[in-house]
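dude i think i finally got it to work??
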Amino acid sequence: MQLNRRDFLKLSSLLPLLIHQLNQPFSDETDFIPGEEFPNIVILVFDALSSENMSLYGYNRITTPNLDRFAERAMVYHSHYAGGSFTSSGTASLLTGTYPWTHRAIHLHGTVDEKLARRNLFEVFKPLGYHSIAYSHNLLATSLLYQFRESIISLLRTRELCLIDDQFADRLFPADFNVAFWSEWLMMRSEETNPSSLFLSMVHRFYRALRKRGVTKDYGEEFPRGIPSLHNLFFVLEDAIDWIMEKLLFSPKPYLCYFHLLPPHEPYTTRGDYLDLFDDDWAPTPKQESPYSEGYSTQSLDTQRRYYDEYLAYADGEFGRLYDFMNHEGLFENTYLIVTSDHGEMFERGIRGHVTPTLYQPITRIPLIISRPGQVFREDIFTPTSCIDLIPTLLSETKQSIPQWCEGKILPGFSHTNDSNDYDIYSMDAKSNPKMGEIRNASISLIRGEFKLISYLGYEGLSNAYELYNLSKDPGERNDLSISHTGILKDLLEIMETKLGTVNENFIGGRFK
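look at this
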């Protein structure tokens, strides 16, 4: 009998458990496992998932029917925001409960300020005896997880769930994933900008082409637009979902799981059965081009949006398999399942993707769906919330104190106090700012109540440029009120400047106090 890759992964994942059980002394009494009275916690991140493209939140296309099903037994947050606009900053905010100006993973390949590396989700649950498990398809997220490795019991490397593994630098630098990642990235850049500069680059490209040809032969018909990939790592989401199911079924309890899956992040290479699912005549009304436009035409953006929506539907379909599995196994009775993202994606104003200085809703507004153990009803919450609120909420739910360094608060729906609409929600993009310097070159958004302020600091030709929107009346951010509502603009600017002043006091002269 021949085993395919998925069957092999299933069987091999059971081997450590079997060996462990065989090595245990026989006993007819059940041993007490410290912390087993605590509920399991499963955090599922779909990378670059914007609430704006989800049918759960009213999108025109039915992109998330399975998440819609899940929502019927969960808390659904309608105004939830990422701390940053790309993987490093957004993921770091989620995992540390702090904003980018604190954790300092503000560059595209950034990591958290090393002095703060033990202030993370996994570390705060260690005293409770949680078995922590983490994995990401995205090497940028993996570099953060590797930085937190002393707090994580089981950290799977990205390559382990990939079809092609031509990353080699982490084998040369096994003790330092971040050095390995940069080495790999520099190799790829060398091939792109000057492929004849290194003989090894030529060999590496030839080797990769041979391996890709083999995978394309095996999976090409299943994925007509190309096999899902990022950073030269090719994968299929089905393998990750199968692996997650095994972990949820056989891992020591209670467990704390962080699974960071790449879809619907670009490239938008959906599976064949979702191809042209949204080949319709619908398109959103175009918006005014941004000063930061990348030059994409409306037609091009509409096409990319459709590809993204089809890729999202594929990710949702695989979530549906996981949801049905958890339901069948009764895992919801003692498990928090949290579905969210690190940032969103944009297809408007001449901009595609998320590597942009702008902080419009498609990039910063992300899903948050939380199912409590045993929950059977839906609750919709419209109060603005932030990704930094997740850690304090989970600590509160497990009757633990919230550390002072955590900048979030307990999410409405979990808090026993009156929910306030004057809680300030920030997002920030500071890719050009020095990592350990005062925040002087950045885009910062502030949401208070129904208003959203976007401030662009230090950009040439746009110094002290602002945008102001009333999200309750203008959720699409079409009408900039910064000129007509100067009083509100002044109040919000004062709040932002005061906050930024406090932040910068800790980074005088580019050095942390």
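The first strand starts at residue 40 and ends at 46.
im so relieved honestly
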